[in-house]
Structure formats: structure tokens, C-alpha cells
Design goal:
- The chain has 229 residues and is of the alpha+beta class.
- The protein is 32% helix and 34% strand.
- The chain contains 6 helices and 11 strands.
- The strands form 2 sheets. It has a 7-stranded mixed beta sheet with strand order 3-4-2-1-7-10-9. The protein has a 4-stranded antiparallel beta sheet with strand order 5-6-11-8, with helices on one face.
- The longest helix is centred in the last third of the chain and has 33 residues.
- 16% of the residues are buried.
- The N terminus is likely disordered.
């Protein structure tokens, strides 16, 4: 009976569609942290007046708990007056481990990773599903935002929005069923620039040492002259 309830709720959830935000954070050592936020509006949850929002979300997640737990995902709920949903997050030691383990990015398409001459290119080409009978395992998603955050020097990209100060590149997918390619190319290694304050302090120290040496030298010369007299 419980499995039937889960299937019924999932079918209604898929028919209603949802909104997602997917964030990939790339570390200096090319480690990966992924965060996926999937929400639906309050009208969806109002269909279950006898069940709490947390109970409905629990039913939705239950079929995937084994995979999520076995692969170290952190699961939490998000809820406000307008919408509610789930947050999934996980961390990986490398891009290769991320691609091999995570299944979340597959909701959009296949992710390709190319490394060439010290540069890394990540490309994903696909579309959000708008088909209730989709057999590929994709959810019905109305809109999605994909963000890549990284400290590396970006050589090229096709992001819709760029926050250069914080190193965040954003792609807005506003229509399901329409193919779109996402790509970004960046340097594998980070050039360690010396902070300007360190440079200023270094110059001051050198300047002080030079003055101190000149004073000391002058004092020695004066002393010798006095001794000679």
C-alpha cells in the first residue's frame, strides 16, 4: 500500500513539474561540491491536506534513499510560504569521481570532461524533459538554473550571466524540451598572485633595512674618524 502511495504522489509531482537550481563548486584542487535544490509550489502540496509537507517530500525521496545514502549525499528540506522541496548535496575529491558517481546532472544531459594543454573543458548538451512518459529516468522540470562557481581563470564560456567578482557562471534554462549546450573552459592550475598588501609590506621592510644600514655605516665611519683623532 505504501509503495502505491509513493507512486501516486510521484506521478502527480511529475505532471506538475518543478523548478530546480543546480550548483557546482570547483575547488582549487579540482575537488567538486554539488548542490541540487528542487522545489514545487504550495498548490502541489495543498493537494494533501492530511499530510505534512515533510511527509510528502519523504515519499518522493524514499525510492532513491538507498542510492543517496550509499553515495554520501546530504539530504535536507527547504520550505517557505510559496514553495517547498528538497536540497541534495555531495562532495567529491575529483572531477572524474563526480562524473562517475553523481546522477543529478543526467537530468539535463551527458557531461563531457576534456583536459588539454593545462586547460579543462566541461560540456553538457541536452534538454529538460517535458514528457510525462519519459523513459530515460528524467523528471518533468519546468525551469532550471545551473551555476558553476570556481576560482580558476576562465578562458571561454557561454554562460547567460557572469559574476566575475565571485567567480560564478550561470545558465538559465527556461524551456523544457529545447536542446541547449553548456560549456566552460578554464585553467587547470591557479596562478598564485601575491596580495598587494604583502608587496607593500615587503617594500617598506626593505626600505627600513636600507636606512638602518646607512645609519649604521655612518655611525661606524664617524667612530673610526673619532678614534683616528
Amino acid at each position: 500500500m505504501k509503495k502505491k502511495i509513493v507512486l501516486i504522489i510521484m506521478m502527480i509531482f511529475l505532471c506538475c513539474g518543478c523548478t530546480t537550481e543546480y550548483i557546482i563548486e570547483i575547488g582549487e584542487d579540482l575537488s567538486i561540491k554539488e548542490t541540487a535544490i528542487a522545489t514545487n509550489n504550495s498548490e502541489f502540496f495543498d493537494q494533501y491536506p492530511k499530510s505534512s509537507v515533510e511527509t510528502v517530500i519523504g515519499f518522493l525521496v524514499e525510492p532513491y534513499l538507498e542510492y543517496l545514502n550509499d553515495n554520501g549525499f546530504t539530504i535536507s528540506n527547504v520550505k517557505n510560504e510559496e514553495e517547498a522541496g528538497i536540497i541534495l548535496s555531495n562532495s567529491y575529491d575529483s572531477i572524474e569521481e563526480y562524473i562517475e558517481t553523481s546522477k543529478i546532472y543526467e537530468q539535463y544531459g551527458d557531461l563531457q570532461y576534456i583536459e588539454n594543454d593545462g586547460e579543462i573543458t566541461l560540456t553538457i548538451k541536452g534538454m529538460l524533459s517535458n514528457n510525462e512518459q519519459d523513459q530515460s529516468g528524467k523528471y518533468l522540470i519546468d525551469t532550471s538554473v545551473i551555476k558553476i562557481k570556481l576560482p580558476h581563470n576562465v578562458k571561454s564560456h557561454n554562460a547567460d550571466e557572469v559574476d566575475e567578482e565571485n567567480g560564478i557562471y550561470t545558465w538559465n534554462i527556461n524551456e523544457a524540451g529545447v536542446e541547449k549546450e553548456i560549456f566552460i573552459t578554464f585553467d587547470k592550475k591557479i596562478k598564485k598572485d601575491i596580495p598587494i598588501q604583502f608587496i607593500v609590506v615587503g617594500i617598506i621592510i626593505v626600505f627600513v633595512l636600507i636606512i638602518a644600514y646607512m645609519i649604521w655605516s655612518k655611525a661606524i665611519i664617524s667612530k673610526k674618524q673619532v678614534n683616528e683623532i
